[in-house]
């Protein structure tokens, strides 16, 4: 069994699940007055330039899912990393932004980042509008863009680093700073998370400046599976290190100012309005953490073998089928943080994760891809049709079953050309991959329902755009594949080259004549047809050297033809008898000849190949145009009934011995050869019109010939 499991991620994302009681924590630093910006040493231009380069370098690494790069970037952006008990494991650079993530959050974020999913800045604006219904979603992307532009030019090192890192995460093709349509700019997992985190901190700081106490104590860890609820999914306790350090005027000032202006409810007291700001901060953090829970979805991909042997046939696929099996599941290991609180929620919703299929994700949407590389040059040249899913397999929208499992069966495709005798094996590389999204998965809906009913405090989270909640970030896995393919080879190599290939000559002959009765009216047809096919399978050759451009190609030849000559005459016409009366003559004649012939033997084709690649391929009559006489019979019937003289009536049928000659003619074609990797290929098709055995004929010559240079 060959498999590649997706790396397990700790259950970091339930950081905001907390017990109703929290332990005391050491007192933090003095809280500055509301509105006080971060302070610290003034950075020199050289130091700011070095910081900009550092942000770009870390973004390049973090964009591909490097957790170490993400942890380093968080610290330099003024965001701490701490354990649930409040212990700081990665301090923030100064001046700190007053924000913190759980110890395993960077790894989860890196995992999601590595999966490559994205939403747009417009999607994020829709999310914010669910929290601020009065906000204009068309304005929000431009406000975020304006805040980022201000941040990249900030003299505060952490604010500057945060802004430049967020922008650089999108890469040069997704410019958050200058795009004329910011709502369409893609946001990856890390960008969305950092924007939500920064906005939540700014909201908390704004609430604090208006007299609201911002909790900064870490939540307590539930120790027993039966610990008493309630558990809360939201709350700033796990994320806000120091509410006073989250400054309104830098980082997200434009966006905060606008959201503040559309937050007030008529008649609402300033205290209630400030509390609402903190509630919105909690709600955004809940959404952020809910998104990160999808890092705990796992995808295992296995195959029953890592090697596929392609068929040698040009007629059928198969001769080797591989089964790939994908399993999507959700890990609720008992030792993960807050797993017990999470279990409580699922138990309330009636989901039992103690069952054998615990965590199976039913209904996940899967997209399969399987290929083998062939050739060189462009992508299309290197990924031609060598392997493919079997007919009837769902590739674009496969679904996992109740056990979270889906399978794909794939096989090698038929050869595009005849390989000749004893083809040689060619080893190629390929891969099978699968990408899963949880949008349609039953567990995604269960997750929302369970948290809403079992944990409490979720509030407006279930009102977030369902499309964003269920789409999340795709997860994928890829396995390497070995493919044994085949290439033409000669059975007898002569000299320093090997010749192989096939030439087919097909003649189609047809002539039809309308037969007239004595009154010149149509009364029947005379139809003569012949189809002849000659196939030359090249087994070797000699010639084509630096001194000679000519080669003689030995071939095994098979000839087959079918001939038919059918005459049908059926007439009834008026005649005048000697006594002046009118009578009717009836005359019917048929003649039917069908003949077939087959010949097999050795033959030889002539080839002239010029240094520039132009060539002439021929089979002249003197080298092997074939004829064959085939004995047979011609069956005839005759019927005549005279209207004037009944003594002349007759009716008979007979078989007439006959000998039909079948023939297969020569040809002469031209073309331009191509050479790649030591193989010269001559291929083409030409059609001619001529007369053969007195019949108008269409002759089509099709050829593919390889000259393989000896290593």
Could you say which overall geometry the principal axes of the C-alpha atoms support? elongated
Unreliable runs, pLDDT <50, ≥5 residues?
1-40, 218-235, 246-250, 334-342, 344-351, 450-467
Beta strands, count: 26
Radius of gyration: 41 Å
Descriptive notes:
This protein is α+β, with helices and mostly antiparallel strands. The chain is 23% helix and 37% strand. The protein has 14 helices and 26 strands. It has helices spanning 45-62, 67-76, 105-115, 121-131, 140-152, 157-169, 189-209, 253-261, 270-292, 339-348, 379-382, 442-454, 466-471, 621-624; strands spanning 2-5, 79-82, 88-90, 99-102, 118-120, 186-188, 297-303, 307-309, 321-330, 365-372, 387-389, 398-399, 405-412, 424-437, 475-487, 497-516, 522-543, 550-576, 582-609, 614-619, 626-641, 650-664, 667-672, 674-676, 679-692, 695-709. Strands 16, 17, 18, 19, 20, 21, 22, 23, 24, 25 and 26 form an 11-stranded antiparallel beta sheet that branches. Strands 1-7-9-13-11 form a 5-stranded antiparallel beta sheet, with no helix packed on it. A 5-stranded mixed beta sheet has the order 8-15-14-10-12, with no helix packed on it. A hairpin with a 2-residue loop joins β25 and β26. α1 packs antiparallel against α2 (67-76) and α10 (339-348) packs across α12 (442-454). The radius of gyration is 41 Å and the shape is elongated. The two termini are 37 Å apart.
Sum up the structure in keywords:
alpha+beta; 5-stranded antiparallel beta sheet; 711 residues; 11-stranded antiparallel beta sheet; 14 helices; single chain
């Amino acid at each position: 069994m060959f498999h590649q499991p997706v790396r397990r991620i700790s259950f970091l994302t339930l950081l905001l699940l907390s017990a109703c009681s929290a332990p005391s924590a050491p007192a933090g630093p003095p809280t500055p007055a509301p509105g006080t910006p971060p302070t610290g040493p003034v950075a020199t231009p050289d130091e700011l330039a070095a910081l900009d380069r550092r942000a770009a370098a870390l973004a390049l690494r973090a964009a591909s899912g490097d957790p170490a790069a993400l942890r380093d970037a968080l610290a330099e952006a003024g965001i701490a990393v701490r354990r649930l008990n409040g212990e700081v494991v990665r301090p923030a650079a100064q001046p700190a932004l007053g924000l913190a993530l759980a110890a395993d959050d960077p790894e989860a974020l890196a995992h999601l980042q590595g999966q490559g999913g994205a939403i747009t800045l417009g999607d994020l604006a829709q999310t914010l509008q669910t929290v601020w219904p009065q906000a204009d979603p068309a304005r929000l992307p431009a406000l975020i863009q304006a805040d980022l532009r201000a941040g990249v030019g900030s003299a505060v090192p952490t604010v500057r680093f945060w802004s430049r890192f967020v922008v650089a995460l999108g890469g040069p093709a997704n410019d958050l700073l200058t795009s004329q349509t910011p709502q369409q700019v893609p946001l990856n997992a890390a960008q969305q998370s950092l924007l939500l985190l920064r906005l939540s901190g700014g909201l908390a700081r704004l609430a604090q400046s208006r007299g609201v106490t911002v909790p900064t104590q870490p939540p307590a860890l539930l120790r027993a599976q039966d610990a008493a609820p309630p558990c809360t999914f939201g709350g700033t306790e796990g994320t806000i290190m120091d509410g006073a350090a989250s400054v309104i005027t830098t980082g997200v000032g434009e966006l905060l100012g606008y959201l503040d202006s559309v937050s007030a409810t008529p008649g609402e007291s300033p205290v209630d309005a400030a509390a609402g700001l903190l509630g919105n901060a909690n709600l955004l953090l809940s959404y952020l953490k809910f998104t990160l829970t999808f890092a705990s979805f796992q995808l295992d991909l296995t195959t029953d073998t890592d090697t596929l042997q392609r068929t040698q046939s040009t007629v059928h696929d198969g001769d080797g089928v591989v089964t790939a099996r994908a399993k999507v599941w959700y890990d609720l290991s008992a030792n993960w943080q807050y797993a017990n609180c999470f279990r409580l929620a699922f138990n309330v919703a009636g989901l039992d994760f103690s069952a054998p299929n615990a965590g199976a994700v039913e209904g996940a949407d899967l997209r399969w891809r399987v290929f083998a590389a062939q050739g060189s040059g462009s992508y299309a040249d290197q990924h031609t049709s060598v392997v493919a899913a079997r007919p009837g397999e769902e590739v674009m929208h496969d679904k996992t079953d109740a056990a979270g499992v889906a399978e794909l069966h794939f096989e090698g495709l038929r050869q595009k050309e005849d390989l000749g005798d004893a083809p040689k094996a060619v080893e190629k590389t390929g891969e099978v991959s699968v990408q899963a999204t949880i949008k349609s998965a039953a567990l995604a809906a269960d997750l929302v329902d369970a948290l809403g009913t079992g944990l409490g405090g979720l509030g407006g989270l279930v009102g977030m755009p369902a499309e964003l909640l269920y789409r999340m970030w795709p997860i994928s896995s890829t396995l390497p594949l070995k493919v044994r393919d085949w290439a033409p080879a000669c059975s007898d190599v002569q000299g320093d080259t090997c010749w192989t290939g096939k030439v087919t000559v097909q003649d189609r002959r047809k002539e039809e004549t309308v037969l007239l009765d004595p009154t010149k009216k149509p009364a029947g047809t005379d139809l003569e047809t012949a189809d002849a096919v000659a196939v030359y399978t090249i087994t070797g050759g000699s010639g084509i050297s630096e001194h000679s451009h000519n080669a003689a190609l030995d071939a095994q030849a098979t000839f087959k033809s079918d001939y038919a000559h059918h005459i049908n005459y059926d007439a009834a016409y008026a005649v005048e008898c000697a006594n002046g009366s009118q009578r009717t003559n009836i005359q019917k004649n048929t003649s039917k000849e069908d003949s077939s012939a087959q010949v097999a033997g050795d033959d030889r084709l002539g080839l002239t190949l010029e240094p520039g690649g132009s060539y002439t391929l021929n089979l002249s009559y003197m080298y092997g145009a074939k004829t064959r006489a085939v004995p047979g019979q011609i069956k005839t019937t005759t019927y005549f009934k005279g209207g004037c003289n009944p003594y002349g009536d007759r009716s008979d049928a007979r078989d007439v011995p006959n000998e039909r000659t079948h023939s297969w003619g020569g040809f002469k074609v031209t073309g331009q050869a191509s050479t790649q990797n030591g193989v010269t290929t001559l291929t083409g098709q030409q059609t001619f019109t001529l007369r053969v055995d007195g019949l108008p004929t269409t002759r089509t010559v099709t050829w593919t010939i390889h000259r393989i240079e000896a290593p």
